[in-house]
Specification:
The chain has 165 residues and is mainly α. Helices cover 67% and strands 0% of the residues.
Length: 165
């Protein structure tokens, strides 16, 4: 662990967020843990974006569930910040909850429709199409087979023997 005594509070937060953005989550966790500890000792509020970066660092470096909980606390401080939704979406994706990740992305995009990182993550995760037969469940065999057929037709695959198998 580094010696943080000579680093200002603002610099700790700035560096920690920068490390989190670059995917250096262990370093981000160190810097942001120190920042949050200082803020708590001084009884100051932790900005939502910094708290979300800390949650992302915790979630990606050690405990995804705890990271999500921290991001949800960050949302309580600032519900309209797309950076918080981005951190939350990344953690949901990491935990395997694609649906919640996309919900978080869409909520973030409702506040900032051109947010590049949210749009990039949405493209990376992909968006589900509506079921072919809307009154049947998504996993109903009719919807599954029709969805596979539609996908094959859209992608131009010629192997028609495996389409309905």
């Amino acid at each position: 662990m580094a010696d943080f005594k000579s680093i200002s509070d603002d610099d700790l937060a700035r560096r920690g967020r920068a490390f989190a953005r670059r995917g250096q989550f262990a370093l981000a966790n160190e810097f942001l843990t120190e920042f949050c500890a200082r803020m708590m000792r001084q009884e100051k509020a932790i900005p939502g974006a910094v708290l979300a970066a800390y949650g992302l660092a915790v979630g990606m470096s050690s405990d995804v569930k705890e990271g999500i909980e921290i991001c949800l606390r960050a949302l309580n401080t600032d519900r309209k910040n797309p950076e918080i939704y981005l951190s939350l979406a990344r953690l949901h994706a990491q935990s395997g909850s694609r649906k919640r990740a996309i919900e978080s992305i869409e909520r973030g995009l409702s506040f900032s429709p051109k947010h590049a990182e949210l749009l990039s993550l949405l493209k990376q995760l992909g968006r589900r199409q509506q079921p072919m037969v809307p009154f049947l469940s998504r996993d109903h065999p009719v919807n599954v087979r029709l969805g596979r057929l539609a996908h094959k037709l859209r992608s131009g695959t010629r192997d028609k023997t495996s389409v309905l198998a």
